[in-house]
Amino acid sequence: MKVETISKNSQLEITIKLNENQSISCTVTPPDGDVSFVDILPEVYTIYNKVLESTLAEHSRNGLHTKCDKGCGTCCHQLVTVSIHEAILLVHLVNSMKDPERSRIKKAFDNILKKLEDKGLLKDLLDFHINKFDDKANIINIQKEYWHLNQNCPFLVDASCSIYPFRPFICRQYLVSSDPAYCKGSFKNDRLVKKIPLTHDFASSAASFDGEEAIFTRGIPLPTIFLINGLLTYFPRPKAPAAEMITRYLRHVAEFFSR
Known about the structure:
- The protein is α+β, with helices and mostly antiparallel strands.
- It has helices at about 40-60, 85-95, 100-120, 120-130, 135-145, 170-175, 180-185, 200-205, 230, 240-255; strands at about 1-10, 10-15, 25-30, 35, 80, 155, 160, 220, 240.
- The strands form 4 sheets. The chain has a 3-stranded antiparallel β-sheet, with helices on one face. Strands 4-9 form a two-stranded antiparallel ribbon.
- It is globular.
């Protein structure tokens, strides 16, 4: 991945060469002054949308198509893991909403936390995601137990994402090529979901980036973002001009999360 940025007035023109066959360009309007990574997440989402469009178009030319469609929402019952930056952004987004939507979403989060606590899953959910994220076997077991709770994502409304422009990287990356019916049988050996191969893992890169350098990967389970929001504010958030921050992150993606 090769990145070129050009600042023009308040806009930033970005060109990325993903590989020999793929290049994308887009223009974003980031905040002025020094910013932390969470401050330019919406702009990075815009960049990643272009990356995904290019990747899906390339696969389509080779006969591989995504089967995901509006109104499905099956994957929105899975345990979603986000980066610290995305957790902070989502809490801010909900707190900025007006009632009754804000109250509805917070109540939905509270209900999920109560179910997790009643099932004895909450403590392990936090421990494994924040402190032992490399313990993949236990993470998968917790994901399986969460799946069987059959909980809607709090942001799911009428089988559609109510915060679609701000949905986390992991949701953007969950694109399947297998029969959508298999998604309903997740965690069953005869219903293995096939995902579209992606050139870069932006979700994992965000979870291992502090705004300046690579860090130990930390995943935040989506249902807990309000529970641990106070703790998240204590994590260091280095700042830099937007062009530099975006470039740092894209270089981090290229160095550690190219596939």
